[in-house]
Write a structure and sequence with these properties.
It contains 10 helices and 14 strands. By secondary structure, the chain is α+β, with helices and mostly antiparallel strands. Strand 12 and strand 13 form a beta hairpin. The chain is rod-shaped. The model has no long low-confidence stretch (mean pLDDT 81).
């Protein structure tokens, strides 16, 4: 039998490999797209210079310092915190972030307080401020910077813009999030693939398949459709499922009606029984059984109550 035909019978198509490859490719695509989108997003500072710091624009801030001035509680018990932040151009902006993220940003900046050039990049989308946010921002600035009431809401435009950045709502963040999820999925699939390969390498079935591949390329064999009998094995392939028995381990074989016309070959060892194909008539199955008998003459052949009892007794003795 040529190598192509041997592979067709004995090699399984791994859906896990295909899924892993697709997931990795998608992860690379999403992350690449995210980087591309990311590269097109301007800083809040640049948008201000260009007169484009308006609601709906995506932007980022290189945050070097931050001061909390307000909070917003939601029905689920979560919070958004509002900060006055300064960027690496010493410009002041308003930032809204989820509390956990804000705490992490604040902690990271504090850890690098002795590094003047250190900053954290925060991406998001711009929204218009309202009168409440503006008043709270002025009150917060007055508190932190000791203005002693010298700056009021009437001076708001001299201090802040009429927009603020909401972290995490930019399109690149969503795309990057999907990319990261796909990366994590790829890692899980790769681990599963490695474990599968290890299990396959040490499994008895895989060793048997390796042996029958050698036999099919070197010794005479008997074949009916997808059922093959080699020197020491019988193998049946049904789509991507492979059933294999060592002929010396078989105890009982018989033909069984599949429908009104067709028949199956049933092979039993001490542990289990398996169907080895569906054939057009009983004569084909009888030919397979005759071939098996040339390799193992001690088999119980044919289905009957007596043979079933003999099979059970043989199993007890093994």
């Amino acid at each position: 039998m040529d190598q192509k035909e041997i592979n067709k019978l004995t090699k399984k198509k791994s859906g896990l490999v295909i899924a892993t490859i697709i997931t990795i490719v998608l992860a690379i695509v999403f992350i690449a797209v995210s980087i591309g989108v990311n590269g097109n997003i301007k800083s809040y500072y640049q948008l201000e210079l260009d007169g484009q710091a308006v609601s709906g624009e995506e932007a980022y801030i290189n945050v070097v310092d931050m001061y909390p001035f307000a909070e917003e509680e939601f029905e689920d018990g979560s919070y958004d915190d509002y900060y006055i932040v300064f960027d690496d151009n010493d410009s002041a902006y308003l930032l809204c972030v989820d509390r956990e993220i804000g705490d992490q940003l604040y902690h990271d900046l504090y850890q690098h307080i002795d590094e003047p050039s250190y900053y954290l990049v925060v991406y998001g989308t711009l929204y218009d401020t309202d009168s409440e946010i503006e008043q709270l921002a002025i009150d917060g600035a007055d508190y932190y910077f000791d203005w002693q009431g010298s700056v009021t809401i009437d001076d708001y435009d001299d201090v802040f813009l009429r927009t603020y950045l909401v972290e995490g709502e930019s399109s690149d963040t969503i795309i990057l999030g999907i990319g990261i999820m796909l990366v994590l999925s790829s890692i899980v699939l790769l681990i599963a693939l490695i474990v599968s390969a290890i299990v396959k390498a040490v499994s008895k079935k895989n060793k048997d398949i390796k042996e029958i591949r050698k036999e099919l390329s070197s010794y005479p064999y008997y074949r009916q459709d997808n059922t093959v009998i080699s020197e020491n094995y019988i193998l049946y392939r049904n789509k991507n499922k492979i059933s294999i028995y060592k002929l010396a381990d078989l105890l009982w074989v018989y033909s069984a009606p599949y429908d009104a016309v067709k028949y199956s070959l049933i092979c039993c060892d001490r542990a289990s029984s398996k169907s080895f194909g569906v054939f057009d008539n009983k004569e084909i199955v009888d030919g397979l059984i005759d071939e098996i008998l040339t390799h193992n003459s001690s088999l119980i052949v044919g289905y009957s109550k007596e043979n079933r009892e003999e099979y059970q007794n043989k199993k007890k003795l093994l």
